[in-house]
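Example 3.
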Amino acid sequence: ETGVTQTPRHLVMGMTNKKSLKCEQHLGHNAMYWYKQSAKKPLELMFVYSLEERVENNSVPSRFSPECPNSSHLFLHLHTLQPEDSALYLCASSQDGQSGANVLTFGAGSRLTVL
Amino acid sequence: GQNIDQPTEMTATEGAIVQINCTYQTSGFNGLFWYQQHAGEAPTFLSYNVLDGLEEKGRFSSFLSRSKGYSYLLLKELQMKDSASYLCAVKDSNYQLIWGAGTKLIIKP
């Protein structure tokens, strides 16, 4: 496989469930990102990992917990979510972190619905 | 605060030309990006502008005026497959990406 792969593509969960989103990149990039995309709103950056270390956490609620075990894999662990957390969660990767003209390569996203 | 403005939705006819505008107010500027996102798919990179002027890439061109805080994406010879959302994003002085809400482009036969 090439590019950025996200699983599952669709997820429905209750507010008391625990689930995880998975992202895998086959591009040799050294930075990975989680974004939240809600209808008619700008992309919201949630977490950034550069060289497997978290470099940014934009005041995301603790019910979202990221994990980056190596430079190719990124997880987003979910627990006790709220209905307003329903959205498309996009994973992205890039070379050379956030500086310069580095281009983000996105996955197709995981569509999350919280009941 | 930092802000990116772009129209919510535009409609154009197959074979025609359409211009999608993006205006920005950011703390510093380190480049402007355009991404295309088809429904249910990943956003994909279209263009990057850091200097003033027009960058042409096939049927797509992107223009930047830093003094006016303004960019546009020009799509020529529109095809049905160009129906998608177009996202404008600016890198600020801290190299943080500030995103617009996207413009949904509808192409009619």
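The two ends of chain A are 33 Å apart (CA to CA). DSSP finds no helices and eleven strands in chain A.
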